[in-house]
Amino acid sequence: MVICVTLSGIKKHGPCSDEFNKLIAHLGLSEKDSHNISLATIIDSNGVDEAIWCLCAVSGHDKKIRLFAVWCARQVQHLMADKRSVDAIDVAEQYASGAATEDDLRSAWSSAWDAAMAATRPCESSASWSAVWSAAERGAAGGAAWATARAAVRAAARSAEKAEALGDAMAFAQEKEFRRAFCSENHDV
Predict the structure, then answer these.
(1) CA distances from 33 to 7, 67, 70, 160 (A)
(2) DSSP secondary structure letter of residue 134
(3) Digit-coded pLDDT (tens) for 49-107
(4) Of 70, 69, 73, which Cα lies nearest the Cα of 154?
(5) How distant is the alpha carbon of residue 165 from its chain centre?
(6) Cα separation of 153 and 16, whole Å?
(7) Are 67 and 189 in contact (CB under 8 A)?
(8) What pLDDT band is residue 166 in, cutting at 50, 70 and 90?
(9) Rounded CA separation 124/179 (Å)
(10) Local structure of residue 5 (DSSP, 8 states)
């Protein structure tokens, strides 16, 4: 299922003005137009970071968005030294599938927060924050996906000698997964 947003939907969430104007120019539209814009078009115009951020303007796809956040966190799960972080990812995934409650999610978020605050190494800290964000509250799925994606890239980049190359590889993998989840006609979660 190809997921779309509108400029007005994006605008409601306070986008960076430079990035918003770049998208408008790419589309050849005005700020007041309300055409549906695919997330793939946003990637092509502004990059995957902005497309992930635009998930905050998507409604009706919380499960798919949360599962993307979980996917991002799983990419750096091996860097998580504290079991509370891994448990939070598991609960976020269970919540997306209807197997955990909002109370379970809140509890997992709180435990993951404590684990992230206790982390001492930069790569562990970033990875732990990706777990925190994957377990963010239900209504914040889009923001959680963006924060998780960014934390995962930072964790991946900080864990290698060739940080830039690894960060680029993680960003590439995120874009590929993002396109599969949100821009493909043949995929539905």
Answers:
(1) 7, 31, 33, 44
(2) H
(3) 899 889 989 988 989 999 999 998 898 888 888 999 999 999 999 999 999 999 999 99
(4) 73
(5) 20
(6) 21
(7) yes
(8) low
(9) 27
(10) E
